[in-house]
Amino acid sequence: MTPTDPPETERRVGGLRVQIDRALCVGFGDCVTASPAAFALGEDDIVVFVAPEAVDREQLLRACASCPVDALTVWDADGTQIVP
Predict the structure, then answer these.
(1) What global pTM score does this model have?
(2) What class does CATH assign to 10-83?
(3) What angle do CA 8, 10, 11 make, to 5 degrees?
(4) Which residues, 6 or more positions from 23, have their beta carbon under 8 angstroms from its beta carbon?
(5) Conformation bin of residue 45: beta by default, left when phi > 0, alpha when psi is -120 to 50
(6) 10-43: burial string, b at 16+ Cβ within 10 Å, e else
(7) How far is CA 52 from CA 4, 44, 73, in A?
(8) Residue 15 half-sphere exposure toward CB, CA atoms < 13 A
(9) Long-range CB pairs of 34-43, under 8 A, 24+ apart, other chains included
(10) Which among 43, 36, 50 is positioned nearest to 8, based on CA atoms?
(11) Is 76 helix (H, G, I), strand (E, B) or coil?
């Protein structure tokens, strides 16, 4: 990624589709605390993906569900929203 590229806002991980709503994220960092291998705060203090595929499914779901402003949304393989 170059400095002018927008941050990635969606990633498919083990049958899940994980989306970051950068307009909702206010940088509390609860997801980072829950799973620093999956998420980090970017230079603008908004969450970015690190390596969500490196953590197990339950840890990833807990990290996404920990967001107090619901800036992380997860859908299962059938397209059913499971977080929040």
Answers:
(1) 0.93
(2) alpha beta
(3) 105
(4) none
(5) left
(6) eeebeebebbbeeeebeebbbbbebbeebbeeee
(7) 23, 20, 13
(8) 8
(9) 34/59, 34/62, 34/63, 34/66, 35/59, 35/60, 35/62, 35/63, 38/63, 39/63, 42/7
(10) 50
(11) coil
Mean pLDDT by 10 residues, the chain (84 residues): 79 97 98 98 97 97 98 98 98
pLDDT tens column, 14-33 = 999 999 999 999 999 999 99
Structure tokens, 71: 């800036």
Q: Which two tokens stand for residue 60?
A: 């990833």
Structure token digits, residue 79: 């397209």
